[in-house]
Write a structure and sequence with these properties.
By secondary structure, the chain is an alpha+beta fold. The chain has 22 helices and 21 strands. A five-stranded antiparallel β-sheet has the order 6-5-9-8-7, sandwiched between helices. Strands 11-13-14-16-15 form a five-stranded mixed β-sheet. Helix 11 packs antiparallel against helix 12, helix 12 (about 315-340) crosses helix 18 and helix 14 (about 360-365) packs parallel to helix 15. The longest helix is centred in the middle third of the chain and has 54 residues, at about 255-310. The N and C termini lie far apart (about 135 Å). The structure holds adenosine-5'-triphosphate and magnesium ion.
């Protein structure tokens, strides 16, 4: 039993009284069995305000509040102490001046040697200060929580020392998309990209925060739905009073918008710089080209006049070569004028698809046999307001560049699509916002370094060896696109191919869209014997065949195997003759291809070339339109076969 033993002897009693009196931090006093105050110490005087003479003989319940007295707490306290050997509680008590203080109270019963209850020892401690401090802390925590919970622009949350999320605020939910319930206890590395996780960035971030007291960075983070945002992140370590790490405070802000704005600004500045440079160069070259054109006009006309009077073979030859040089000079100045946007354009509304398809034969030929040209043209598209001839020249320049960039062959794609340019993008491109037709020319070639890509539009910039390129191709394209109210840009990386993207303002209407498949639209203007598709995997043989068909007046399309040929058939180009090798790589042979071709294009004439004797070939199963020729064939033979095949005589 935890009871106080009353000291027996007088000196001992005195010492005890002295000790108790010396205590000022505790009120220590005695009650008789009825609760009447029997002794008092200086601590009691200090807390409660009464001096010994005025309080001795009073009932201790006066220290209690009215409410506590109403519930008879004083009596119950004594009863509890007597019954259980101790009463211990915290509660409000009242001072002499009526003021309240928060007290920690212990009441112990006092028994005499015979076991009779002779009173109670009461020890009271004033905890007002501590309680105040606790309340202030609670309040400030509460306020802090409200503050953090009220923040929606910042993700503010805590991690335990291992990086597991321990709490979450609405800002975190808004930015990252997880609710508190689903994220608590999960590791924070899930907010990082796969690349960053693979590089161990989350661990490193905590490590740095721990070592340096703070981790502060920007980077891509991932939302719950998998989308990325550009985040500004601060991680602070949190230590307890014992200087032990108890976790991390993490504040994340979504600054994607700011980053985008910044990037847009930088791009716009770069674009402006580029535009100014091109403008200056353009003015210069435009001026030179203009003067040069006048000089050339004089030279050409003078040479023309000269030819009339010259009869000697040598003189004629000299004048002719001077004329050729002058013509070449004229073509160059034409390109320069195009670059400086001073060429007279005959713009009209054209449908990009019809325009490109009408030029497809030429483009395919320019590609050569190693490059596989694919066209991706929408059936319906807005019109563009362009000079058709200049458009074709530009496209040809791009195709030739692409071919040169793919000496070992590759894929070249010309794609048309449409886009709506918003204000930001429009500002970067330096053209008005609105609808645009997008023309993409993409190759899988050698690509370019950044330095080269920055200069490609400059006149006379070429990386090709002397005599191979003038460096005016892209200058023409650039000038033409700019003069047509458009925008052009290059995306390229060494070894990763090149994409040239052109935007031209989209217009309603224009020429008829190619609706009822009016195939004449796609036909080149020149008078031809028709179009032949030559399928041959051996480059040298292909070249010879191309030469022969060309000299016979055919427009030539080529394919290096059957699959490629079928792709060409599936496009909307008129083809009159299929000339194919019988033995071919990649599965399908010439005989099978011819059957497929006749299905796709009923009425097409097919001429199959084979190195085997005729007798080895299947004789049945072909209709009128198929004929064979054995390798090696001669020009005249081929011409004869074709004539018979096409005219029946
Ligand atoms: N598709 C491409 N892939 C890689 N580099 C390219 C591509 N297109 C252009 N280039 C680079 O840009 C340079 C300039 O091209 P541009 O067409 O203006 O001139 P060029 O082809 O060299 O000569 P020209 O076209 O006058 O005969 C090229 O020399 C080449 O280095
Ligand atoms: Mg070129």
């Amino acid at each position: 039993m935890n009871a106080v033993q009353v000291p027996e002897t007088a000196p001992e009693k005195e010492r005890f009284q002295l000790l108790v009196d010396a205590v000022t931090d505790y009120a220590i006093y005695m009650l008789d069995p009825n609760g009447i105050i029997a002794s008092w110490n200086s601590g009691a005087q200090r807390f409660k305000g009464y001096i010994e003479s005025e309080i001795l003989g009073e009932h201790f319940s006066r220290f209690y509040t009215d409410e506590d007295r109403a519930t008879e707490l004083p009596r119950r306290a004594l009863e509890t102490a007597a019954r259980e050997g101790k009463f211990e509680a915290e509660g409000w008590r009242v001072r002499k001046d009526g003021g309240r203080f928060w007290a920690h109270v212990v009441i112990d019963p006092i028994w005499d040697a015979k076991g009779n209850l002779i009173g109670y020892a009461k020890i009271t401690r004033d905890l007002t200060e501590r309680r105040k401090a606790e309340e202030a802390l609670k309040e400030s925590e509460q306020r802090f929580r409200l503050l953090v919970q009220g923040v929606t622009d910042y993700a503010i949350y805590m991690l335990d020392p291992e990086g597991y999320v321990s709490n979450w605020n609405p800002g975190a939910q808004r930015i990252k998309g997880y609710t508190e319930d689903e994220i608590r206890g999960k590791h924070f590395s899930r907010f990082y990209t796969d690349e960053d996780r693979a590089r161990g960035l989350p661990q490193r971030a905590l490590e740095i925060a721990r070592r340096e007291g703070r981790f502060d960075a920007e980077g891509w983070r991932v939302r719950k739905d998998g989308t990325r945002f550009w985040a500004s992140v601060v991680i602070d370590p949190i230590y307890n009073d014992m200087k032990r790490l108890i976790g991390f405070a993490k504040i994340t802000r979504d600054i994607t918008e700011r980053r985008n704005a910044q990037e847009a600004l930088e791009q716009a500045q770069a674009a402006l710089f580029q535009a100014q440079k091109m403008e200056t160069v353009g003015q210069l070259t435009g001026g030179i080209a203009h003067d040069f054109n006048n000089l050339l006009t004089i030279i050409v006309n003078s040479l023309d006049l000269l030819t009339r009077n010259v009869t000697g073979a040598r003189e004629t030859r000299l004048i002719e070569s001077a004329q050729r040089a002058a013509d070449r000079g004229a073509r160059l100045t034409q390109q320069l004028l195009a670059f400086s946007r001073r060429q007279p354009l005959q713009s009209e509304l054209r449908n990009p698809r019809t325009l490109i398809e009408g030029f497809e034969t030429v483009l395919r030929r320019a590609c050569g046999e190693l490059v596989n040209l694919r066209l991706s043209l929408p059936t319906r598209s807005s019109a563009i307001n362009v000079d058709g001839a200049q458009f074709e020249a530009a496209l040809l320049n791009l195709v030739v560049n692409a071919r040169d960039a793919m000496p070992d062959g590759g894929e070249l794609t010309i794609a048309v699509s449409e886009t709506e340019l918003n204000e930001t993008r429009a500002a970067i491109c330096n053209i008005p916002a609105g609808p645009y037709v997008v023309l993409n020319v993409r190759d899988t070639g050698i690509g370019m370094s950044k330095d080269v890509a920055e200069r490609v539009f400059e006149p006379f910039f070429t990386t090709k060896e002397f005599g191979k390129g003038t460096g005016l191709g892209l200058s023409q394209v650039y000038g033409f696109i700019m003069q047509s109210g458009g925008h052009i840009e290059v995306q390229s990386e060494p070894g990763k191919g090149t994409t040239i993207t052109m935007l031209l303002p989209a217009h309603d209407g224009g020429e008829e869209q190619d609706e009822e498949g009016s195939s004449d639209m796609g036909k080149p203007a020149r008078d031809t014997a028709g179009t032949v598709l030559i399928v041959e995997d051996e480059p040298a043989v292909l070249e010879v065949a191309m030469e022969i068909f060309d000299s016979l007046g055919y427009d030539v399309l080529t394919a290096t195997d059957a699959m490629h040929a079928i792709e060409v058939f599936e496009r909307d180009i008129p083809i009159d003759v299929l000339f194919s090798d019988v033995i071919m790589p990649n599965g399908m042979n010439g005989v099978e291809l011819s059957r497929k071709a006749q299905k796709l294009r009923p009425g097409i004439k097919v001429l199959l070339a084979s190195g085997y004797p005729m007798s080895a070939l299947p004789s049945e199963g072909f209709d009128e339109g198929v004929s064979f020729i054995s390798k090696p064939y001669r020009w005249t033979e081929l011409a004869d076969k074709l004539r018979v095949l096409r005219t029946g005589s």
